[in-house]
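Weekly modeling sync, notes
Attendees: S.R. (lead), two postdocs, one rotation student

Agenda item 3: backlog of single-chain predictions. S.R. asked that every request posted to the team notebook include the full sequence so nobody has to chase files. The rotation student volunteered to paste the first one in as an example of the format we agreed on. Action items at the bottom.

Example entry:
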Amino acid sequence: MSRPRFGLALGGGGARGFAHIGVLQRLDELGIRPDYITGSSMGALVASVYIKMGSAAATWTELEAMIRSDAFRKLGMHLINVKARGGESFWHQVSSAIQDRIVINLAHSKPGLVRAERVEDAIKFVITEDKWFDSGTELGIVSTDLYSGEDVYFTEGPLLPAVMASIAIPGFLPPVYHEGKTLVDGGVSQQVPIRMAREMGADFVLAVDVGQDIAPITDMDNAMAIMSQSENIRSCHYRDMLNREADVLLLPEMPGVHWSAYDQSDTFVDLGLAAFDERRVTFEQAWYQRRHPVWARIKSLFE
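Predicted structure, as returned to the notebook:
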């Protein structure tokens, strides 16, 4: 029997995606190198840097340098950290931030709040080469076709447009036009790219979801809030359905944390460590059972 292939699926969630580094650190400590690592949105950026740097520690160092850079500061992430929105979902926070920062006329005249050149300058700080494979791990990145709604998978070719497409938060960052397609954030279609990991060849998938559950909204007296919350509910149910396809799912707890709080990267890494530690026994048992099904069955009979 051939060795089962291990897949790691990293979901989107803005700055909360630094929790992925904590999970990667624990896997490094266990000597587990994924055969496949797939990423959506911030998960795509973390996965790409991990392939480039080769370890969780080096990935953290590289991304910390990026968020301290002038190019990243020009994106204005620090300007949209609205304290009252910590408990709301990622998509509702984005929607609310857009409502706060632009008027309707501006929304009709621009594809995003931040210019594409500024996004590219920030991402170029860490994406310096087209690297899709290293130390036995293959990288996969997911984005969404804005016209067809289909998943668009990247596993080769220019890496920069793939990452930019996967992080293109609708309304906040402009779409990426690539090979005749208009692409937006991978989280629109696959918040956590478990399905992509399976399609690349993974037999076992550990998934990390850094999104948040549905939260109550007090001001539900206007059409925009009602539409936003309804979309939030729909997207959360769809995400939960896809998450069931993982063998083991990690859900770092981040109550009251805004998706743009990049100044709390240390905290997010610690939350990733805690999420892994909480389910470590479950993960190790499930992974052992997948690798040694016969011995696992015999062991369970004696227990």
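Discussion: group reviewed the output briefly. The two ends are 25 Å apart (CA to CA).
Action items: rotation student to repeat for the remaining queue; S.R. to check formatting next week.
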